[in-house]
Amino acid sequence: MCELLAMSANTPTDLCFSFTGLTRRGGDTGPHKDGWGVAFYEGRGVRCFHDADASASSRIAEVVQTHPIKSEVAICHIRQANVGDICLANTHPFMRELWGRYWVFAHNGQLNHFRPSDGFYEPVGTTDSEALFCDILNHLRTNCPRDAAMETMVSQLVRLSRGYAAQGVFNLLLSNGDWLFTYCTTKMASITRRAPFGPARLRDADVTVDFESETTPDDVVSVIVTEPLTTDETWDIYEPGEWRLWQRGEVVMSGIEAPDQRTAD
Amino acid sequence: MCELLAMSANTPTDLCFSFTGLTRRGGDTGPHKDGWGVAFYEGRGVRCFHDADASASSRIAEVVQTHPIKSEVAICHIRQANVGDICLANTHPFMRELWGRYWVFAHNGQLNHFRPSDGFYEPVGTTDSEALFCDILNHLRTNCPRDAAMETMVSQLVRLSRGYAAQGVFNLLLSNGDWLFTYCTTKMASITRRAPFGPARLRDADVTVDFESETTPDDVVSVIVTEPLTTDETWDIYEPGEWRLWQRGEVVMSGIEAPDQRTAD
């Protein structure tokens, strides 16, 4: 399987601390050594780093850990391969342009018998995750107008997610740079840090940060993961079937799909 | 304006030497300090690095200079902004997926009165270059079948390039990972290195390489640039209106559009 990490913030914020914790699990404290990737939105642009090697020993991951890249939305993934070879083309996060914006996607899980519909977007690699991403974008493109309101798009995403979730494990991170959509079938947790900020200690590395010294009182920074990254903070665990839409560090829409609904589509 | 660099090779080869020379021109030996980017194909995957800062002083560019990333096709760009703000979204090379492959594009020049046709692909940033790229892909998608032969696509690309060239400066690098299409209106040069390999010295940095020690006798590695990078080798200068299609280090198709043809479309 794999692990996921995302950030939503109301001010450009670096991901060094969380990224350092997650990437230890890529071949050191965890088995997710089959590649890693991270995408940082900067305005409408996206800065990506991908590697098909273990993140714990990657020179490029080391640079990302120590070189503060400021972003309001970031998505990160470390991979333990199941479907698809270990190669760059199969390394999350995946990115496509839709309606003049870059969309970024990372996924944890596996769907049984998933068959994507034909459409404009096609996978380049051989993972079911990338095929899922293309399927989502093809559905959005078909079913939403170009200038659709966020609520319209989210309603489509919830409907689609419910369908995927009925077919297997589907823990999702998806962003268009404006908002971040998250969906949990088995494991996801979040933490929102705001004033008064305190210290935090990573679970996977001997690293402590004092957020007080790195923030202003107005900052709101949320981190969403498949497994909590720190030992001394209280993470908010998603329910199975729960989705949350993040914008500027806050949950702006959310819901929980009951299990019977989740298998009805 | 800006400068371009591409590589086509018959074996995975790193770009450290040429990249080191080019990136000096991004704020040190040249004025192209408004961002830089590079895309390396690895199989069907692409590894990209982008920065909206000067390449000559970029920490990430330094990593790319010293960390050998092996690729058979690479495209690099350093920017001196004319159209479009200095920001990540306006930083070449640009990438889109078409027919299940990543396509990568970088451009030097400026077209007067260019108006892209509407289509599926849309620019995310505000450069005329990215609009051009989207226009090219929209035309290919409309006018070629999904499984078009390389010759069919190239014929379309030559026809399109002729039209763009009639509107201004259009020095182009475009690849789908299989081949690399290059088109020159004002400046482009190439060099093909093959056995017996010799040494080479950069024009922009005190760096010499002995390719003999870094290659095997079967290697064929071509580098295409807007301005030659070395002082002690003979570069093959493109004619205005000349295009060359590169594959595995060799020119596999080429042609020259006469000036009257170039303004006829």
TrEMBL record, chains A, B:
EC number(s) from the headed UniProt entry: 3.5.1.118
Domain Glutamine amidotransferase type-2: 2-265
InterPro entries: EgtC-like (IPR026869), GATase_2_dom (IPR017932), Ntn_hydrolases_N (IPR029055)
Superkingdom: Bacteria
Hydrolase among keywords: yes
A single GO molecular function term of this UniProt record: transferase activity
Keywords: Glutamine amidotransferase, Hydrolase, Transferase
Protein name: Glutamine amidotransferase
UniProt source species: Marinobacter oulmenensis
